[in-house]
Amino acid sequence: MKLLKDILYGVGLRAVSGSTNVMVNEIHFDSRNVKMDDVFIAVRGTITDGHKYIEKAINSGAKAIVCEELPEQLVNEITYVEVHDSNQALAIMASNFYDNPSKNLRLVGTTGTNGKTTVSSLLYQLFKKAGYKVGLLSTIKIMVDDTEYKTSHTTPDPLVINKHLSLMNEAGVEFCFMEVSSHGIHQKRTEGLVFEGAIFTNLSHDHLDYHNTFAEYRDTKKQLFDSLSKKAFALTNIDDKNGLIMLQNTVARKKTYALKNYADYRAQILENQFDGQLLKIDDNELWSKLIGHFNAYNMLAIYATADLLGLEKLEILRLLSELENVDGRFQYFISKEKITAIVDYAHTPDALKNVLETINTLRTGNENVITVVGCGGDRDRSKRPVMGHIASEMSNKAIFTSDNPRTESPATIIEEMEGGVEPQNVKKILSVENRKQAIKTACQLASANDIILVAGKGHETYQETNGERIDFDDFKMVKDFLKSLDK
Ligand SMILES: CC(=O)N[C@H]1[C@@H](OP(=O)(O)OP(=O)(O)OC[C@H]2O[C@@H](n3ccc(=O)[nH]c3=O)[C@H](O)[C@@H]2O)O[C@H](CO)[C@@H](O)[C@@H]1O[C@H](C)C(=O)N[C@@H](C)C(=O)N[C@H](CCC(=O)O)C(=O)O
Ligand SMILES: Nc1ncnc2c1ncn2[C@@H]1O[C@H](COP(=O)(O)OP(=O)(O)OP(=O)(O)O)[C@@H](O)[C@H]1O
Ligand SMILES: N[C@H](CCC[C@H](N)C(=O)O)C(=O)O
Ligand SMILES: [Mg+2]
């Protein structure tokens, strides 16, 4: 139990009715989870409005209500707290409830369209190898040092974030690396957290269904940098034209990294092969098991971050060379007939282009590249034709299929992808709605030395249709089919 007035500390209040000097149990923003003596925060969402469920929350035992607009009828004995912004109130109250756990951690947030999971997970790996207790909040999983927890979001809601940061405090974790998504920033899920640093990877086409315009999407990412303190560092990729914009209004220490432009941290790609690449960072050569120019950016961002956090430079270089690929990111195997099958989480146009570019630079002869790709339902529709165009232009054969259809018709999504295919590439594409069948077709079409790319779902172990999830694992599937075909 906590005192309501303590958990309201720092929240922008408009009016209070009733006493805040009361003990409350838990905080909830979903009326369906409210129990006796809890606080219910009414949040305006994208589908419905939490204010509609205030009465339901009270009937379930809520003792206090936090909202942006008071209901017409107030119930005696209930404390009503009117705030300017419920999302912000939720984030600050969640931090207070768990005794502001981010203050006891050296927390670094990574934002950008692509690379957040890769950079955060590899920083986790690197600091673990350096002997520290480390935390991670990522799309794939949450780690409290060695203990793994499942997650449903890239940047979870403030209660989930702070609960796990608090477990990190209990476990004696020193460093924590977290992904900060644009939805997370926009919904203020990270407000109230104390960051020691923030990293910007890159910005390209995604989520325009939610943010409306590219400028809005970019400015949302920028808010992470605007919120940093003077003691923090703001590390940005200035080969991306949006990189410097992130630094425009921050009071944090500004640091830059680049492969092409002049920057505080620079790297050069010396060699690129299927099993790794040779990089030069700070005049030292380094072998990385992660390939592709985009991973050279990721390695450089990690190097710079580890340096800014105080690790010794040569030690960082040594540890960088030991880092292993993250699940579902350019995860590959070579079959009996030397068919290379790659599974990659490329679900944006830029990521798909990067992965196919990397594959194409590694081709040694006239092997075929067969790409299996789909686009998620209930997500930015405008990226579908662009991804259809890229897959058909940069592969010898592109099989359009379903990703997570969610509530949309898979056939319609595929038609939208087909809309981006140039007339000269039409003969290269094949549309197979069933993803399992599409992967099987790719395996049937592949001959010795060919390369199969299965893009979009990476580490995901399910496929979601109409709220139902079935087991689905791209990597296992492609491996099993090639084996059963004795290829
Ligand atoms: C579009 C979006 O981001 N939605 C998120 C948002 O929910 P919402 O605004 O849609 O909520 P809503 O359904 O309208 O409900 C409004 C309020 O009424 C409450 N309610 C509702 C019903 C009821 O009976 N009682 C009740 O109290 C709800 O709990 C909620 O507080 O807030 C919820 C709680 O934090 C999130 O779970 C939910 O994520 C949905 C499931 C989602 O799919 N989000 C994705 C798009 C997302 O956030 N992705 C990013 C990654 C993006 C990337 O960079 O690639 C992520 O960080 O994971
Ligand atoms: N620095 C980068 N620049 C461009 N593309 C990248 C970069 N790093 C990874 N990618 C590509 O983007 C895909 C997704 O990478 P990752 O999961 O690290 O991104 P993310 O930002 O966490 O994505 P999400 O928004 O879904 O959380 C990878 O599989 C790879 O194809
Ligand atoms: N974080 C991204 C993941 C997309 C993954 C892709 N497989 C899909 O389902 O669209 C999103 O929520 O948009
Ligand atoms: Mg991620």
From TrEMBL:
Domain called Mur ligase N-terminal catalytic: residue spans: 26-98
Cofactor(s) the record lists: Mg(2+)
Subcellular location: Cytoplasm
Protein residues bound to ATP: 112-118
Free-text description of this protein's post-translational modifications in UniProt: Carboxylation is probably crucial for Mg(2+) binding and, consequently, for the gamma-phosphate positioning of ATP.
Residues reported in the UniProt entry to bind meso-2,6-diaminopimelate: 379, 403-406, 456, 460
GO cellular component terms, A-Z: cytoplasm
Positions bearing N6-carboxylysine: 221
Pathway info: Cell wall biogenesis; peptidoglycan biosynthesis
Catalytic class of the enzyme: ligase
Motif position, Meso-diaminopimelate recognition motif: 403-406
Residues given in the record as UDP-N-acetyl-alpha-D-muramoyl-L-alanyl-D-glutamate binding sites: 31, 154-155, 181, 187, 189
Family note: Belongs to the MurCDEF family. MurE subfamily.
Name of the featured protein: UDP-N-acetylmuramoyl-L-alanyl-D-glutamate--2,6-diaminopimelate ligase
Organism: Maribacter algarum
Lineage start: Bacteria, Pseudomonadati, Bacteroidota, Flavobacteriia, Flavobacteriales
